[in-house]
Amino acid sequence: MSSPQTEAPTLLLRQEGGRLFVTFNRPERRNALNDVMLLELEQLITRLEEDASVRAVIFRGAGGHFCAGGDIRERRQQTTASRPGVDIAMERNIRAGRMFLRLANLPQTTVCVVEGYALGGGFGFACTFDICLVMHDVQIGMAETRIGVAPAQIAPQVVRRVGLSNARYLGLTGRRLNGEEAVRLGVAHDVACSAEELDQKLARLLDDIDACGPQACAATKAIMNRVGEIPLDALIEYAGRRFGELNRGPEGIEGQQAFLEKRKPRWPSLTG
């Protein structure tokens, strides 16, 4: 049964079973990231890090745009308000970087559906979530260098997504990609030409996610996120431990039994 929709100042949340739909809700500013939204996201991440009832998180933007990046008006005010020894904009930038890292490491499968603009921080979101669907006419990219700053906190996520060469190409030109280009460079995974097609592709994607074991997906993300972060020998040991835990646990037992019986698995973590 669907839960009632709750509204936060900058986020709209709606949970349907194991799916949590999150909508960036500053349409008057093309959903630009400000301090209030950052706080709301931090609070949401804290919840999701411990919430086993949610297995997929789907992010969209209100008003026809995903997220136009950081709120430059607010940043200018923070710069003006800064004083010697206290750089408010810099501190906010570091907070945002930590938020992106926590998003990347969530145990849930995260999906973004991108329409309209996804620039700067919005592009960072698109490169941070596990799976990205885009409309064909989106405008997405790293716009920071065109306004004289660096894409400081999204750059690591972009490099992880598209590789160093493509990240340099995007960051050092500030050019915007459409949907087909985003898929070709590896930013997005699928593109749609209409709102109806986009919704259909999202529905099929969520069905595919539901077919997979939630704990198996969480472990897969955790293993992949450690590639390049820890020595290979240590990663082999870590991955082997996670495999063993799953293989002898209720999810592994059910999944393999369902395969042998030629039926769909009934994931214990979802059925209690």
Automatic annotation (TrEMBL):
Leader sequence residues: none
Q: Which InterPro entries match?
A: ClpP/crotonase-like_dom_sf (IPR029045), Enoyl-CoA_hydra/iso (IPR001753), Enoyl-CoA_hydra_C (IPR014748), Enoyl-CoA_Hydratase/Isomerase (IPR051683)
Q: Which Gene3D superfamilies match?
A: 2-enoyl-CoA Hydratase, Chain A, domain 1, Lyase 2-enoyl-coa Hydratase, Chain A, domain 2
Q: Which domain of life is it from?
A: Bacteria
Record's Pfam families? ECH_1 (PF00378)
Q: Which CDD domains match?
A: crotonase-like
**Its family?**
Belongs to the enoyl-CoA hydratase/isomerase family.
Name of the protein in its database record: Enoyl-CoA hydratase/isomerase family protein
Species the sequence originates in: Banduia mediterranea
Source lineage: Bacteria, Pseudomonadati, Pseudomonadota, Gammaproteobacteria, Nevskiales
